[in-house]
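Lecture notes, continued. The same structure-token format from the folding unit now serves as the input rather than the output. Read the line below as a description of shape only.
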């Protein structure tokens, strides 16, 4: 099993990679995922796993920067799936 790269999110919203001992951005996290690296994002104060929230933010940032938004139908389907 590959090493999981643990990233801590601090109250000031900064993201800190414990493996490389440096601050990272959402763009850095996107690149890690594209390189097939396993990551886990932990809220430093609560110790809660916030990986899904952080990846959602990374997707949103990437779409905003590249102006490639998912079709409304896809977004609606995702919302419907969440409601179960």
């Amino acid at each position: 099993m590959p090493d999981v790269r643990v990233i801590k999110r601090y109250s000031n919203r900064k993201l800190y990679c414990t493996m490389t001992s440096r601050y990272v951005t959402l763009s850095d996290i996107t690149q890690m995922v594209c390189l097939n690296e396993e990551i886990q994002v932990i809220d430093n104060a609560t110790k809660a796993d916030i990986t899904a929230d952080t990846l959602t933010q990374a997707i949103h940032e990437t779409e905003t920067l590249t102006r490639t938004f998912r079709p409304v139908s896809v977004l609606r389907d995702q919302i419907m799936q969440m409601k179960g």
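Point for the exam: The longest strand covers residues 4-9.
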